[in-house]
TrEMBL record:
It comes from the Bacteria. This is Carbonic anhydrase. CDD domains: beta_CA_cladeB. It is an enzyme of class 4 (lyase). Zn(2+) binds at C42, D44, H103, C106. It comes from Sphingomonas dokdonensis.
Length: 210
């Protein structure tokens, strides 16, 4: 398993090759960033959007969290990490697309289905429970249709994308940019087992990317 010393060794390889061999690119990036796409993805170590989309530094602005969720627009209470990143991407970087990417075998989705952290205290699953309760309505709908088996897991993984896109549209600055044609919202789902990316159509259905 990789530990910190392995990461430092990896840095050495990057410094010798990736950084040194693309010195001009890094010099340009040192002056600022101008990505055209924001990706909201899961924190899962197996679903890195930079790997899935084969991008280089500076090409995508990424936010990762449990189950690739976007909360609805709200101004009170707590901290707003996802909202702040979204605001920065849309209003300051002027990204042209926001992509929500779910994935297979998502632990956050599994927790939402089983409700294994319900009533837990912070530090024992409570933070997780309060985050994934964003999926409560979708979970109830999915379990009513699919039960609690593999089909339900897959269906709820896709629902995380739809829920997040719906919540994206609750932000006034997203509404404004989308209405003006400056911003497009995209959905995708990555199958870890098959290595296949599914892309969401305008009607909410998913199909393998061509």
């Amino acid at each position: 398993m990789t530990d910190f010393s392995d990461l430092v060794a990896g840095y050495g390889r990057f410094r010798e090759h990736g950084w040194a061999e693309q010195r001009d690119r890094w010099a340009t990036l040192a002056e600022g960033q101008s990505p055209k796409v924001m990706v909201i993805a899961c924190s899962d170590s197996r679903a890195d959007p930079a790997t899935v989309f084969d991008t280089s530094p500076g090409e995508i602005f990424v936010v990762r969290n449990v189950a690739n969720l976007v909360p609805p627009f709200e101004t009170g209470g707590g901290r707003h990490g996802v909202s702040a990143a979204l605001e920065f991407a849309v209003t300051q970087l002027k990204v042209e697309e926001v992509v929500v990417m779910g994935h297979g075998m998502c632990g956050g989705v599994q927790a939402a289905l089983t409700q294994q952290f319900a009533q837990a205290d912070p530090g024992e699953g409570g933070f997780i429970a309060h985050w994934i309760d964003l999926l409560d309505t979708a979970r109830d709908r999915v379990t009513e249709e699919h039960g609690a088996g593999d089909a339900a897991v897959r269906a709820l993984e896709l629902e995380t994308v739809r829920v997040s896109i719906t919540n994206l549209r609750s932000f006034p600055f997203v509404q404004e940019a989308e209405a003006a044609g400056r911003l497009k919202l995209r959905g995708a789902w990555f199958s870890i087992k098959e290595g296949v990316l599914w892309v969401m159509d305008d009607d909410g259905t998913f199909a393998p990317a061509r």
